Amino acid sequence: MLLAGGLIYFAINGFPGFGPSGNSDAHAAAPTTPTPTVNRFDSARAFALLKSQVAMGQREAGSPTSRKLGLRLRGLLPNGRFETVPGGLRNVVGTLPGTLPAIVIGAHYDSEALPVGFVGANDSAAGTAAVVEVARALSRYRRHGGPQLRFVLFDGEEEPAGSKDSFADGLRGSRAYVLAHPGQVKEMILLDYVANKGLSIPRELQSDVKLWGNLRAAAARVGVASVFPNSTQGGVWDDHTAFADAGIPAIDLIDFSYQYRDTLQDTVDKVCASSLDTVGETVVELIRRR
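Above: the chain sequence. Below: its structure as tokens.
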């Protein structure tokens, strides 16, 4: 994710309008990942999907590899389908029934176009795997009422190779989705860097305060509160931004302290199933109470 150069500067120091990072040692805690007290999210399946994406190699938007992955992901989501994105791209969308407006649980499935050879274990295989397994976990519950659930894997989050303007050329899938579904979404939960070892996710500064509080309460109920400390990190320009800009409460689950971001070292040995489990169980618990 996280479109290079100036974006990294702003993500660390705070974006205009969002202010500086609220806690300089927000990532000092959680050297190990706690084990959830529930077992509804299959972290082994999620980690296997993460590894299989990485094994495909680089998956930049619009590439044959990305399109092959999209076909597979469509079959893994409930009622999976494609929605077109300008430029020949396509979001992968799954749905569980309920009333509108819906809750969107999302991630992006394209990888960085540069550097050549980037495989993106945490960015973007982790979020994609977590969303698929959250959908599977929630599909096993008999829901009585409640909002429709939409599981959206965005294409084109990363800017293409040769882009001169990351702000203009990134977030293609999420921007297209928001434009295509006016008034249909009540909340958005984004999963991005969620599998690195020693995971710690303070609130990202664009993330809605009330919804983030609900997330932290869900984490406490499943015994993993320490992963979501009561602190903040700098604002990150990510797929939740398109929703926030449209007035939709949105949160970004991202550990931006991840030291291998946007490098060839973002590989499977840097991530773990236990971190996926922590995030997956928290999101399942959050959604079950919505």
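The longest strand covers residues 99-108.
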